[in-house]
Amino acid sequence: MLITMKADASTQATDSVINMLTGRGFEVHTIRSSGAAVIGVNGKPIPEDLPSSMQIADGVSHVDLHPSKYPLAARSSRPEGTVVRVGETTIGGLEPAIIAGPCVIETEDELISIAQGVKRHGATLLRGGAFKPRTSPYSFQGHGELGLEMLAKAREETGLPVVTEVMEPGAVEMVAHYADVLQIGSRNMMNFPLLRAVSQVDKPVLLKRGFAATIEEWLQSAEYILAGGNDRVILCERGIRSFDQATRFTLDLNAVPLLRELTHLPVVVDPSHGTGRREMVAPMSAAGMAAGAHGLIIEVHPQPDTAMCDGPQTIYVDDLAGIVSHARTISAMMSTGVPTKVPA
Ligand code: PEP
Ligand code: MN
Fold this sequence. Notes:
- By secondary structure, the chain is α/β, with parallel strands linked by helices.
- The chain has 2 domains: 2-67, ACT domain (Alpha-Beta Plaits), CATH 3.30.70.260; 84-333, Aldolase class I (TIM Barrel, Alpha-Beta Barrel), CATH 3.20.20.
- The protein has 11 helices and 15 strands.
- Helix 3 packs parallel to helix 4, helix 6 (192-199) crosses helix 7 (215-227) and helix 10 packs parallel to helix 11 (320-335).
- The chain binds phosphoenolpyruvate (PEP) and manganese (II) ion.
């Protein structure tokens, strides 16, 4: 059962509904960081009288006995949309978020130089992998905590907030200590213990789509994080596996306007992993923004051909400038309803 409070319900009214429910032995999950509070009720069967008694409680807007599979992530739970604040920047607002940096952090000097370059070209956040999910156990797995220290140094030098992947529940606290945004990689989208672990920290989460996951499964993974109490979730479309091997993955841009309709969470597009090809990053960035994305995540490197990971899909640092400029223009067109209007 899901209880949505009125937008102007007082904190006391919300607390009193929660106390009433916990007093009757239910588990509750509440989201109330902005707008109307939404209370998920679980833990045991719902007695017949409960929905009607909750419906008349002070401050309650509506009670849904059979909510959707992702009630907290659903657009209806926050129709105005979620804007995730990260330091001085936002993801989900009118300005496109541009997250750029190497696939994997190699050296501190190189990372700082990339961070300065991408900042100059308009990036709003720096990305870089310290813990890398590699298909082969013999591939470079990242510098681990040392890489996180390098990221923190790059943030100190440039002021850019940093996004980096966390792969296991036991590492969440450590990664959250350094990172401004925790990335959940495609391979871990359904790692439910990891989703639960990141739901407990006070850091936004960039949730990448599993490359074989449906949109409904993806939104339910987001729901895990919201239900645990962390409502700062950003969805990232990064391509799915299709029958066609012509590109590394198939960037599913259908997902973008669909997600804008289905969920209030911000959506960013990853044209690097989505295509696997450097030459395709600029056109698919533009396409992602035209589809209604709130931003992009792009792999960049000063010498992509010698990058330690994902070189073929990595753009040169200076090529980011044109992509950002087009992203801003297209984003402005989208928000003024030209050529087509997407939901808020
Ligand atoms: C990444 O962004 O570094 C990454 C590993 O991406 P994905 O999880 O989408 O493969
Ligand atoms: Mn990569």
